[in-house]
Design brief:
single chain, 217 residues, Aminopeptidase, globular
Length: 217
């Protein structure tokens, strides 16, 4: 059985933005409360994304089988008032339904955690779409805790949780492949048993010859 894996996570380039806009439209249809980026028209979404990037925002995209299937929109927020350290604020996290359960969300958050560490952020905040329980459960499993209407996790804690999940996933995949190999070997053995005994006379090209004893005299 083949396993689909994320082939690429990178900061969005200009030619990625139309695919990101299409994902935003898909997110609107998938969300119980409507679009996370506000606008519905593709041109307007491209304008919003351009403004986000020009204002220092970050757009992370994930590719699976060559197609953009996941996105994170985020921005680094400087220390302010009682917040003594910078933070990464995630405005949008979305993975296309067809690409879920293939590690796309984990890969995106791993890239987001690396981005946060590069900017010396201590925490990552996320504003999950209200009513989208799937996203909320996903973030909660990775250690995001409720915080003033948002969810927050420290960068170090998220990186530890992602590393632990990756190890556990690799272990499960190895165990599954081991089971599949065992099943395949048992099937081959059963096939041999069901085919009946092997006629040894056919080995070597025919029935064994008999040597007649020499006559005396």
């Amino acid at each position: 059985m083949s396993v689909r894996t994320v082939s690429d996570i990178h900061l969005a380039r200009e030619d990625d933005l139309p695919a990101v806009a299409a994902l935003a439209t898909e997110a609107r249809d998938d969300s119980p409360t409507g679009a996370q980026l506000g606008a519905q028209e593709a041109d307007r979404l491209l304008e919003h994304l351009s403004v986000l990037l020009s204002a220092g925002g970050h757009v992370l995209v994930a590719r699976l089988d060559g197609q953009v299937v996941g996105v994170i929109l985020g921005r680094v927020v400087a220390a302010y008032m009682f917040a003594q350290h910078a933070s990464l604020y995630i405005d949008m996290l979305f993975v296309a339904p067809r690409a879920r359960r293939h590690g796309v969300g984990h890969a995106l958050l791993r890239a987001a955690a690396d981005l946060a560490a590069q900017h010396e952020c201590h925490d990552i905040y996320s504003a999950p779409v209200p009513g989208n329980r799937g996203v909320q459960r996903f973030l909660a499993r990775l250690g995001f805790a409720p915080a003033a209407g948002h969810r927050v996790v420290s960068v170090a804690a998220l990186q530890r949780r992602l590393a632990a999940d990756a190890t556990a996933t690799a272990g499960r995949r190895s165990a599954r492949l081991g089971i599949e190999d065992l099943i395949a070997r048992r099937r081959r053995a059963r096939s041999v048993m069901e085919s009946g005994p092997i006629d040894m006379r056919t080995v070597g090209g025919g029935a064994p010859s008999r040597r007649h004893p020499a006559k005396a005299g």
